[in-house]
Design a protein that fits this description.
Length: 117
Amino acid sequence: MFQTQDPNCLFCKIVKGEIPANIIYQDEKCVAFYDIDPQAPVHFLVIPKVHIGSCGELNESNSVIAGHCLEVISKMTKELGVTDFRVVSNCGEQAGQSVPHLHFHVLAGRDMTWPPG
Ligand code: 5GP
Ligand code: ZN
């Protein structure tokens, strides 16, 4: 299940090493890497290695990976010395999703506003 990738997906290509990324953590289930266009002093993404389109495709059989990604976020923020941060997962074009592979943005290092734009 965790080996399934989409050959046309940008983030699957990062998982496979076909496109370079500044990877800060990886294990058998997920990869964390810095965003190419950072929106905060700290901005990295955590993605499952398996191709899941977005949070909207999570279900009983694959949602364990989302919990794992959040666990990795907790671990990585501690390693980076970050205590205050925002986790965002855009789901669908109207919500601002541009890469259709589930990812969690982690943003930190500046004041954040609410509600988000
Ligand atoms: P979304 O817009 O789908 O919520 O987030 C996609 C994120 O992926 C954006 O913040 C964008 O800057 C980032 N991104 C797009 N292409 C690449 C890439 O090739 N490498 C890295 N590291 N980030 C990327
Ligand atoms: Zn993918």
